[in-house]
Amino acid sequence: MTPFLKNTLSMLGIAALTMATTLVAVNSSSVSAAEGEDKNVEAVKVEIKPVLAQASLDIDNCTFTLKMDKEVYSGDDKPVLTVEATNPGKESVTRSVVVTMYGRDLNSRGRMPSIAMPLFTKTVEFTLAAGETKSTTVETGRTMPAAQAISMGMGKVNPNGEAFDEIEKALPRAKSVN
């Protein structure tokens, strides 16, 4: 037998062994109810850990802070966010911030990563007296989508009532190689 043939057969044997081991490992960890067993098998729980892309924001001497009610969510949880506003100035002010939840598909099949899409957006307005701190809760009303990277953040509102693009700038992005 030639050395080339020996190496080829060795590689095929190793590949077959690896495939068999993988199949055994995958099949042993899967959950299934056989005939006669209880059919109420609890579904595997998914843990989602969103990222706070823009946790604090300074607008015209006012500080806004965004907090999540949990660090880890399950697939059927609806996040509740808290926005806290502080006015350390000497005049009362009215300011608005946009709270946004973004999702980016983890199963994209392209050369470039998928684009983060807004899943929830709400504008929150605060009227603060001098030295006052207020907080408000924002209920997203959306469950966390499966197989997505979730990020949450805040942005400024321009005079037209539209959100500036600071949240998009704060989102973690993959760098292009081109």
Description:
- The chain is of the alpha+beta class.
- It is 18% helix and 37% strand.
- The protein folds into 2 domains: 1-28; 49-170, Immunoglobulins (Immunoglobulin-like, Sandwich), CATH 2.60.40.10.
- A hairpin with a 2-residue loop joins strand 3 and strand 4.
- The longest helix is centred in the first third of the chain and has 27 residues, at 3-29.
Would you spell out the secondary-structure blueprint of this structure?
Elements: H1 3-29, E1 47-48, E2 51-52, E3 56-59, E4 62-68, E5 73-74, E6 80-86, E7 93-105, E8 117-128, E9 133-139, E10 148-156, H2 166-170
Parallel strand pairs: 2-10
Antiparallel strand pairs: 1-5, 3-4, 4-6, 6-9, 7-8, 7-10
Question: How many H/I helical runs?
Answer: 2
Radius of gyration (CA) equals 25 Å
Integer average pLDDT: 77
- Secondary-structure element sequence? HEEEEEEEEEEH
The CATH architecture category of the largest domain equals: Sandwich
Q: Percent of residues in beta strands?
A: 35-45%
**In terms of structural class, how would the helical and strand content be classed?**
alpha+beta
N- to C-terminal separation? 48 Å
Q: What is the total domain count?
A: 2
CATH fold-level assignment of the largest domain: Immunoglobulin-like
Identify the CATH homologous superfamily of the largest domain: Immunoglobulins
Uncertain stretches: 39-43, 174-178
Kindly report the spatial arrangement of strands forming the biggest sheet.
2-10-7-8
| Proportion in helices | 10-25%
CATH class of the largest domain: Mainly Beta
Characterize the largest beta sheet: strand count, sense, and whether it forms a barrel. Answer: 4 strands, mixed
Number of strands: 10
Based on Cα principal axes, name the global outline: elongated
